[in-house]
Amino acid sequence: MEFLNRVELRGVVGRADINTFNNSQVCNFSVVTEYSGVDRDGNSNIETTWFNVSAWAGRDGIADLSSIKKGEWVKVTGRLRSRKYITPENEERQTMDLIAKEVSILPREDRMQAQRDR
Predict the structure, then answer these.
(1) pLDDT tens-digit series, residues 27-80
(2) CA angle, corner 114, sides to 30 and 40, nearest 5?
(3) Looking at the domain assignment, is residue 1 inside a domain?
(4) How many domains is the chain built from?
(5) What single DSSP character describes residue 103?
(6) Strand ranges (DSSP E) for the chain?
(7) What's the CATH code of the domain at 15?
(8) Phi/psi at 90 (nearest 5 deg)?
């Protein structure tokens, strides 16, 4: 049996910060997605989810980190990573991050299709 950890997101970039770590550039950004559905009572609702993403310059499908900007529509593929951290209040927390393998800025026609698919 082969194990698989692969995620694909299409959404809009929220915040985007480019930093240098161990002589490599990394862009930490957020992506918002929406899911439209109908509840048991027949009311339509939209579920909004934010994802934290890390993209490293020079990886397979990541050439230019400067194109990842707030408001851009993106397609991101990669893997999920779970990590724990301690807050300043000394509370242990856990989060899931997406480590990007490929980041693409979506052209206008793909944006319109994504909005129709909702």
Answers:
(1) 999 999 998 898 889 899 999 999 999 999 887 667 788 889 999 999 999 999
(2) 90
(3) no
(4) 1
(5) E
(6) 7-21, 24-38, 44-56, 73-86, 92-105
(7) 2.40.50.140
(8) 65, 35
3-state secondary structure of 60: coil
Residue 102 covered by a domain: yes
Is residue 2 assigned to a domain? no
Two structure tokens written together for 16? 């985007």
Which residue, 97, 48, 52, 98, is CA-closest to 78? 98
Residue 24 lies inside a defined structural domain of this protein: yes
DSSP 40: T
pTM of the model: 0.80
**What is the residue type of 73?**
W
Pairing mode, strands 7-21 and 24-38: antiparallel
Range of the domain at 23: 7-117
